[in-house]
Specification:
This protein has 11 helices and 14 strands. The chain is an alpha/beta fold and 326 residues long. A hairpin with a 2-residue loop joins strand 10 and strand 11. The chain binds ligand NAX. Ligand NAX binds next to helix 1. InterPro entries: L-lactate/malate_DH, Lactate/malate_DH_C, Lactate/malate_DH_N, Lactate_DH/Glyco_Ohase_4_C, Malate_DH_AS, Malate_DH_type2, NAD(P)-bd_dom_sf. Its EC number is 1.1.1.37. This is Malate dehydrogenase.
Length: 326
């Protein structure tokens, strides 16, 4: 365990990076020393140098080294964990197809580079949007890496749902278990209270208010990103970094015994989610691997919402297939 964990972060000079790097370096993934490999585009490298100066100035005992650059094959060389945060945001006048092509170019190249040079045990978490489809593009362009090593981040949505439910019921966040986000990390996502628990009681029953669940809880969680932009003037960053850490830590070290987490991972057809889509599910993790929690009963209300979100993912997959990205 003295060998440092090599962790790549892309988009490291961005706002999520500014929070994420310091958490990683200060030991959020454990006591094992960590080596950071930071990928940016050329024009952002100067600013990234400043962030590295600040990392140096923290004198973190767990930080074994930092390397920065714009060449994915150099930065990803031997990495055990890759956190793909950098992506192209939607600019003025940009159509959905333009956005998918711009990100497609990034995630095809990064998928190929990971395929060529990452460590055999690499795990890849995608935060950059559209996260599920970016993960699908990277996965498809990395044929030698098992598909199960790719995931997209829905942990922020999961944490938001826990926080909203805790506020509604007066419970502590630690009293809430088995939260699930289904589907796409987008406004169609489905945060599910029918399998969640508050102090061991079914959450939908504990709330006892279907109107709140439908008209308040679900849209508040699904549109939280937009509400943050409206209030803060820029998109969620520290909370996104925190969720990226939660997801990576649980993936590497395992989820709690009496609980599960939400991760967007490749479907093998579970819960009738079309095979090959990267969709959010309830998962448990152990020994660096995840497995989807099976056998949950899905009623009509939940079925319709899961189907709507996975239909959106299927549309995105069709669009990137037509663009020749996968
Ligand atoms: P910023 O625009 O602050 O930072 C993005 C960084 O990525 C920039 O520094 C840019 O130079 C870099 N970049 C662009 N192309 C790159 C490439 N090819 N290789 C390496 N770096 C590249 O965005 P930030 O607020 O940090 O958000 C990053 C991404 O996370 C965005 O796509 C954003 O939409 C997404 N989010 C995802 C969330 C989730 O829950 N999955 C929530 C938060 C966030 O909205």
């Amino acid at each position: 365990t003295s060998e440092p964990l090599k962790v790549a972060v892309t988009g490291a000079a961005g706002q999520i990076g500014y929070s994420l790097l310091f958490r990683l370096a200060s030991g959020a993934l454990g006591d094992r020393p960590i080596e950071l490999r930071l990928l940016e585009i050329e024009p952002a490298l100067k600013s990234l140098e400043g962030v590295v100066m600040e990392l140096d100035d923290c004198a973190f005992p767990t930080l074994a080294g930092v390397e920065i650059g714009a060449d994915a094959e150099k930065i990803f060389d031997g990495v055990n964990l890759a956190l793909l945060v950098g992506a192209r945001p939607r600019g003025p006048g940009m159509e959905r197809g333009d956005l998918l092509s711009a990100n497609g170019a990034i995630f095809t190249a990064q998928g190929k580079a990971l395929n060529a040079v990452a460590a055999d045990d690499v795990r890849i978490g995608v935060t950059g949007n559209p996260a599920n489809t970016n993960a699908l593009i990277a996965m498809t362009n990395a044929p030698d890496i098992p598909r199960e090593r790719f995931s997209a981040l829905t942990r922020l949505d999961h944490n938001r749902a826990i926080s909203q439910l805790a506020a509604k019921t007066g419970a502590k966040v630690t009293d809430i278990k088995k939260m699930t986000i289904w589907g796409n990390h987008s406004a169609t996502q489905y945060p599910d209270l029918f399998h969640a628990e508050v102090n061991g009681q079914n959450a939908a029953e504990a709330v006892g208010d279907q109107a709140w669940l439908e008209n308040d809880f679900i849209p508040t969680v699904a549109k939280r990103g937009a509400a943050i932009i409206e209030a803060r003037g820029s998109s969620s960053a520290a909370s996104a970094a925190s969720a990226t850490i939660d997801a990576a830590r649980d993936w590497l070290h395992g989820s709690a015994a009496d609980d599960w987490v939400s991760m967007a991972v490749v479907s093998h057809g579970e819960y009738d989610v079309p095979e090959g889509l990267i969709s959010s599910f309830p998962v448990t993790t152990s020994g660096g691997d995840w497995s989807i929690v099976e056998g949950l009963e899905i009623d009509e209300f939940s079925r319709a919402r899961i189907d709507a979100s996975t239909a959106e993912l299927a549309d995105e997959r069709n669009a990137v297939t037509e663009l020749g990205l996968i």
